[in-house]
Amino acid sequence: METSAVISCRNIEKKYKNFELKVDELDFPKGFATALIGENGAGKTTLLEIMAGIRLDHKGEVTYFDKFSEKDRENNPEVKNSIGYTGTGTYFLPNWDMKQAKEVQEILFDSFDGEKYEKILKDLAVVNGSAFEKNKKVNNLSDGTRTKVMLAGVLARDTKLLLMDEPASPLDPLMRDKLCSIIRDYLAENEGEKSVIFSTHNVADMENVTDYVAIVENGRVVEKGFVEDLKEKYVYVKGNKADEEKAGKYMFDMTSGSYGFEGLCLSENADKLSGLDLVFESPTLMQITIGVMRANTKLSGF
Fold it and tell me: Which candidate, 267, 52, 63, places its Cα nearest to that of 162?
């Protein structure tokens, strides 16, 4: 599928004492929801923070909306106002109350709509409009409620791109489903012009809203593509114990039990398994990501 990029990353490097993020080339397609998937500590947050401008001490280049540089992002209000970011760290100062959180966002962002913000907070069951709720300290909110407040803030602005770090993690199952609806509605507001990039280590929560994936392991992008393309690239195979050794030569990733085996195989190698008593299935996104992650993890036992 031919698409333009809402963000392009080239030769990104960020080194820590015991970890290095290295992304040679990664384009995030415009008009879609992209999931950055990987284990905790794989580098997802670092990459998102680089794209959001939170981390500036890195090598390489990030291009926004096919024309703006990182310098433009810092100096051109048009770029910053077009990007909304929600993170897992200290987003609001601990001593701020709900009223101050709103006032600061009104000052920082030209397109922030206070009335829309209040409506979203009510829709997400964060406040009921009472003075007590408005004076409540943000630091006293639950992790899930703070996430809702962050979401309300970015959704109350006129943005073209949302960058969200683990937005589903602190939410309950009902709110995770609501989050998927929020993302779909956001993309549909101006079809083809708005984009979402979010990180997750739990694919099942966000699978039904994910269009494109980039799987990150050990600071490297080990797989990327539109979900439907990846489902054609791989096939999920199940077989009996008697065929495990022969099939294993051509499997991309495989788990074995006392009664048989199952795992991912590249579709281009599927014909090499002919003659064996196997079941071939179209893989789910969860099966693809687990297989790719397992094939590239440094955890022992895989």
Answer: 52
Query: What total number of domains does the chain contain?
Result: 2
**What percent of the residues of the chain are helix, what percent strand, and what percent coil, each to the nearest 5?**
40, 30, 35
pLDDT tens by residue, 240-298: 999 999 999 999 999 999 889 999 999 999 999 988 999 999 999 999 999 999 888 76
- Whether 15 and 50 have beta carbons less than 8 Å apart is answered as no
User: Which pTM was predicted?
Assistant: 0.91
Q: What residues make up the domain containing 132?
A: 5-225
CB 48 within 8 A of CB 12: no
The answer to whether residues 73 and 138 belong to one domain is yes
Strands 33-37 and 195-200: parallel
Q: What would the pLDDT profile of 196-230 be if each residue is shown by its tens digit?
A: 999 987 788 888 899 999 999 999 999 999 999 99
Q: At what angle are helices 143-155 and 114-123 packed, to 10 degrees? A: 140
What values do phi and psi take at 98, rounded to 5?
A: -60, -35
Cβ 156 vs Cβ 117: under 8 Å: yes
Cα gap 215→220, rounded to integer Å: 8
Question: What letter represents residue 61's amino acid?
Answer: E
Beta bridge pairs of residue 279:
238
| Inter-residue contact 31 to 195 (CB < 8 Å) | yes
E strands, the chain, in order: 5-15, 20-29, 33-37, 59-64, 83-86, 161-164, 195-200, 212-217, 220-226, 234-240, 253-256, 260-266, 278-281
Phi/psi at 216 (nearest 5 deg)? Answer: -115, 125
87 assigned to some structural domain: yes
